């Protein structure tokens, strides 16, 4: 129980830090009033963006260390509390004062609990699931591994052969802050906290324009997607991407409504945060520009253009450029490894580029005109594991709600910006890597559009009997579509909670692969490992090189460049490699024929360890390889 309370306190502390930073940032920007989002979401957004780039600055100058970063965080919290106390003494209105003046606080509290009951239970279930020591595939490859390596080094460093280390990493830096404060379980909870912010934002936007009940339905439409629940239980980045995308859209909508500048600035900052989260994040700027320009297409005067350039484009570029500069410094290519023929890049070649693009284009169900026309239906109805079926699931209720929203948008304006941005992003997704998890960003805008469409239909119906029938249909549809996914996830999570309360937290060592445990315990700290057929590095406490993509194998390029066993030995020695870890999981990589002979030649390598299940082998490289192989039995 203490383990759960400790991590609940940890994520509450980080959430408070982000909010406090945003509250202080408002001093510089003046208060940004966005009624549809509310003060909590606006300040949390500003705080998250501020901390990602503050951490970037620390990492860039070699100061990404707890003794330097955590005092800054403490100072921010103290300054925010002091500012709040000064505001209270001067008579400034506080949230508590507003609640007292409103009267009946217990009734308001009961109403808030009733509204948040279902989504709250799901978020609590995700919290308990995240307390597990297990991590997912991509966080083991880079989402958690990169911040771990940066913290060990005190900042950014070149990580040979790791393509991901040269991509934007805003959310990974937040994971690094969590690792500094506590551990990688807290980093997983940071991703869950970003989902909490998505849910709150969706609720507030819908509540601003429709009823409380439909706003709750919107949050459930977001949560009832298996691909999103899968990501929430891991330290991935797509939910953070979805949050900044949603805030950027909502701020653009508020700018059009109020004709004020500050919402457009926050939209630009959010677009910059998107570009600092993924290389593809720049697509968010295109979606927001589409909203701004299509809603007021006839206004292209100089003042309007100047406003868009200074308030939207400039913040986006300012937050995207640092990551591009970092990539250019380490690789010579700001968008490494893309455009290799034009821009070049280290540890890459034209063949790998072709293999990488062929792999990306193979995802989904084809690229013909017919495939693109069928894609909107296929991505809902014909999904499943494996890249041939988008590698994920979303709720089938979208096949009804999306067309309903589009039809309603012909008569009502409120849902058009959300449909337009989701549609534009879907087109970009269709032309790029068709992985289901990359579509998480469109789920909140679609949920808002669907809810606003239902609200518009309800308002057009005659009162009483028709409204009762409307709510009956909506309730029946929700009871049919939502429970299977939500109950399945909640059941698993609460089983984790029961196990945690009964038996305590699982020891971290239980999830460390035994081959890695052998390397960590039996090799010098200066050892450097080549990983073949595996690229998980979070639990490996030694320097290593590995493939970023098995479909475009850099390790195979290194091995295949050798002309003989002796040449291979020289090349590996030139890379300062001392050990080779060979996973027996096949990725159909065409390694050179002499690799097996090289590993069996005692002049070049000796077997040092055979894993428990025989699924991996650890070799010591060099003629002085040492004692015979160890084995777990």
How would you explain this protein's 3D organization?
By secondary structure, the chain is mainly alpha-helical. It folds into 2 domains: 2-93 and 125-335 and 364-489, no CATH class; 512-631, Rossmann fold, CATH 3.40.50. It has 27 helices and 6 strands. The chain has helices spanning 2-29, 38-60, 66-89, 95-102, 105-130, 137-143, 145-153, 170-181, 184-209, 212-223, 226-232, 238-258, 262-275, 282-295, 302-331, 340-343, 350-362, 369-381, 398-409, 416-431, 443-460, 465-481, 483-503, 514-522, 554-560, 565-574, 594-600; strands spanning 528-532, 543-545, 579-583, 605-610, 616-621, 630-631. A 6-stranded mixed sheet has the order 2-1-3-5-4-6, sandwiched between helices. Helix 2 (38-60) crosses helix 8 (170-181), helix 2 packs across helix 13 (262-275) and helix 10 runs antiparallel to helix 21. It is globular, with a radius of gyration of 26 Å. The protein starts with a helix and ends with a strand. The model has no long low-confidence stretch (mean pLDDT 87).
Write the layout of secondary structure elements.
Elements: H1 2-29, H2 38-60, H3 66-89, H4 95-102, H5 105-130, H6 137-143, H7 145-153, H8 170-181, H9 184-209, H10 212-223, H11 226-232, H12 238-258, H13 262-275, H14 282-295, H15 302-331, H16 340-343, H17 350-362, H18 369-381, H19 398-409, H20 416-431, H21 443-460, H22 465-481, H23 483-503, H24 514-522, E1 528-532, E2 543-545, H25 554-560, H26 565-574, E3 579-583, H27 594-600, E4 605-610, E5 616-621, E6 630-631
Parallel strand pairs: 1-2, 1-3, 4-6
Antiparallel strand pairs: 3-5, 4-5
Helix pairs in contact: 1-2, 1-3, 1-9, 2-8, 2-13, 5-9, 5-10, 5-23, 7-8, 8-9, 9-10, 9-12, 9-21, 10-21, 12-13, 12-14, 13-14, 13-15, 14-20, 19-21, 20-21, 26-27
């Amino acid at each position: 129980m203490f383990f759960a309370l400790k991590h609940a306190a940890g994520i509450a502390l980080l959430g408070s830090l982000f909010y406090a930073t945003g509250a202080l940032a408002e001093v510089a920007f003046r208060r940004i009033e966005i009624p549809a989002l509310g003060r909590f979401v606006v300040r949390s957004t500003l705080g998250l963006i501020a901390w990602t780039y503050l951490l970037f600055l620390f990492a860039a100058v070699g100061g990404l260390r707890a003794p330097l970063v955590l005092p800054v965080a403490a100072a921010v919290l103290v300054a925010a509390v002091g500012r709040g106390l000064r505001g209270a003494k001067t008579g400034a209105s506080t949230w508590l004062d507003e609640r007292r003046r409103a009267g009946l606080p217990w009734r308001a509290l009961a109403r808030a609990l009733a509204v948040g009951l279902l989504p709250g239970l799901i978020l609590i279930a995700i919290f308990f699931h995240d307390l597990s020591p297990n991590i997912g595939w991509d966080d083991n490859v880079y989402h958690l591994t990169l911040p771990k390596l940066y913290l060990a080094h005190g900042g950014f460093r070149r990580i040979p052969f790791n393509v991901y280390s040269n991509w934007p990493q805003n959310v990974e830096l937040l994971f690094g802050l969590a690792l500094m404060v506590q551990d990688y379980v807290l980093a997983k909870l940071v991703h869950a906290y970003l989902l909490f912010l998505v849910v709150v934002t969706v609720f507030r936007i819908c509540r601003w324009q429709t009823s409380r009940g439909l706003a709750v339905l919107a949050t459930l439409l977001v949560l009832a997607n298996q691909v999103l629940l899968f990501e929430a239980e891991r330290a991935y980045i797509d939910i953070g991407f979805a949050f900044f995308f949603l805030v950027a859209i909502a701020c653009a909508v508020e700018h059009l409504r109020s004709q004020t500048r500050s919402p457009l600035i926050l939209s630009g900052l959010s677009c910059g945060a998107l570009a600092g989260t993924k290389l593809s994040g720049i697509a968010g700027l295109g979606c927001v520009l589409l909203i701004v320009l299509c809603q007021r297409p006839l206004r292209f005067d100089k003042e309007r253009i100047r406003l868009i350039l200074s308030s939207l484009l400039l913040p986006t570029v300012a937050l995207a450029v640092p990551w591009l500069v970092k990539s250019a410094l380490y690789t010579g290519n700001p968008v490494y490894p893309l455009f290799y023929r034009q821009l070049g890049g280290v540890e890459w070649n034209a063949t790998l580029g072709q293999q990488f693009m062929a792999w990306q284009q193979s995802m989904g169900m084809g690229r013909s005109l017919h495939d693109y026309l069928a894609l909107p239906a296929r991505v809902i109805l014909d999904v499943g594991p494996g890249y041939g079926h988008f590698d994920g699931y979303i709720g089938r209720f979208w096949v009804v709600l999306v067309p309903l929203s589009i039809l309603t948008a012909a008569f009502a304006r409120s849902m058009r910006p959300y449909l337009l941005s989701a549609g534009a992003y879907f087109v970009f997704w269709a032309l790029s890597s068709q992985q289901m998890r990359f579509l998480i960003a469109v789920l909140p805008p679609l949920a808002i559009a669907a809810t606003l469409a239902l609200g518009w239909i309800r308002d057009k119906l005659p009162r009483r009997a028709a409204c009762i029938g409307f709510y009956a249909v909506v309730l029946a549809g929700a009871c049919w579509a939502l429970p299977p996914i939500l109950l399945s996830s909640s059941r698993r999570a609460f089983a984790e909670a029961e196990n945690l309360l009964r038996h305590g937290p699982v020891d971290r060592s239980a999830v460390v692969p035994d081959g890695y445990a052998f390397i960590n315990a039996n090799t010098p700290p200066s050892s450097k490992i080549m990983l073949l057929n595996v690229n998980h590095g979070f639990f490996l406490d030694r320097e290593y090189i590995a493939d970023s993509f098995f479909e475009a194998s850099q390790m195979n390029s290194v091995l295949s460049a050798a002309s003989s066993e002796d040449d291979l030995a020289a090349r590996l020695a030139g890379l300062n490699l001392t050990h080779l870890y060979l996973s027996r999981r096949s990725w159909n990589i065409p390694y050179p024929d002499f690799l097996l002979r090289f590993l069996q030649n005692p002049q070049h390598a000796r077997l040092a360890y055979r894993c428990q299940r025989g699924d991996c082998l650890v070799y010591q490289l060099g003629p002085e390889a040492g004692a015979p192989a160890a084995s777990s039995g």
